[in-house]
Fold these 4 entries.
Entry 1:
Amino acid sequence: MTNIPLPNHSEAKLRLLEAYLDRYLRAITLSGRTEEIFLVDLFCGPGMYAGEKPGSPVAIGRKLSALHAEYPGAPKTTFLFNDADEFNTKNAHRYL
């Protein structure tokens, strides 16, 4: 965890992202026409914020984990993330 507070605009972005991924991942899985899903998170931030609030890479990782738990036959997923600050990517890796 970091001591960095989750900014309000990032919290709003995460709510939208999670709602979108819930619907998108389920729909694309149930369609049966997709073999692999690629997700990319540019400028991922530190991964986890103060107060154990997840950032986008952790939120996405959790959604992918939940997808494969609920649908064992879900398409293969590839998730890439990066940030200009190497601390952020290393920190996010720790939580994933």
Entry 2:
Amino acid sequence: DDVTNFFKSANDTLSGIKDAATADAALPKLKELDTNADGLKKAFGLVPEAGKAAVKTALAEGITKLKELIAKITALPGVGDKIKPVVDSLMAKLNGITG
């Protein structure tokens, strides 16, 4: 549930970015998501071995969708420079969760 809710929130936040103004408005939520990714890593460490494969699959699917969305959004005029540092940090954390 944590993984599903995290990716839903991330997708909702990123999907709301249409221009520089909405990118500015989304920054606090993106920073919160970046912080929450640390919690996901801790939670993943607590998942029993038997359940880790399912969590890794959910993470991989979510990461793939986020990458596509981020690529599209950062290409918008005035958006990439604003959100790139936060989304780069977020993606690095997500990619590092499963080791």
Entry 3:
Amino acid sequence: MSDRALVIGLDGYDNAAWELRAAVRDALAFAKWVTEPGAGRATPGTLTLLLSPHPVRPVKDAEFKQATESEIRRALYNHKKNGAGAERLWFFYAGHGIAPAGGAPDAAPVIVPKDVEDIDYYRSNPIDLGSWIREMQVCAPEHQVYFVDACRGIVVNEDVVTATKMLFFDLSKMKAGEQARQAVLFATTAGQLANEQGLHGLFGGALMDGLRGTGPALEADAEKEEFVLTFGRLAEYTKRRIQAQFEEARRANRILPTQEPAESLFRVQS
């Protein structure tokens, strides 16, 4: 039984002022890791890869669809409806994000597709990643892991009325054990910006090192008779690695906006 994966990375935007440099590279690194042959995770056939490369940095060695608003909405819908039969869902997003209107501090950001030009108009009906993740709590597969490398900046709303999306769950219609188990790791705490440095985002680079097992402490699993990387250890390592990079930047007289990763857990222990 294969895992499923949805990986999204955006460097190029129709609004040139929003250009990023490391998001697509980090998304490709995650896609390569999650489909690594023999690792028992996703396969190229169960991977959905949506990218928006910058024109001067094209992607030539991977098959993908453009990370437009319509393609992202379609991919989120497909994974919500078609997770049965998979053991785990892996999700990775690298690109622009903003805090949702009226959202709680632990709310996932609104993500920004490549073809958004007017951010105020888009915010009236955005792709609310937090709502989708909550909807996935009652969808297969049971185990779901989310990595979100995006800013969670606060946009001041000048409108008198702010529309927010409310979800209502009738859990009486669910059988025991049908709720998912989710582990979410955000690149930042709410209100903070995500930084790029060199060839990777601070979060993306630390995350990939952690997933490859080059930094975090592994824990013994007596049942599997092997050492495993837990989500809690991965989150700890990512935070520690980013803090170390901030200290390096400070010693070099460079100032980076504060960035502290944050995790959100549903029905799982850290």
Entry 4:
Amino acid sequence: MQPDQIKHILESSLNTQYVAVESDGSHVSVVVVSEQFDGISPVKKQQLVYAVLQDSIASGAIHAVHMKTLTPAQW
């Protein structure tokens, strides 16, 4: 799966201020900055991102995801 496809999925599904995606085949690194992350735990932030990418993970297009999830204030 191409980084721009993953970026589009994240941007269209989450209220993001910034998204960066790097991909090495099926291994993906993402940085997601969103106001939706304000006041929630790091685990809940990751769960939001995983939920958005679930179809791609289930299909095998994405095998592993490394992520940084930040609020705009943290960014």
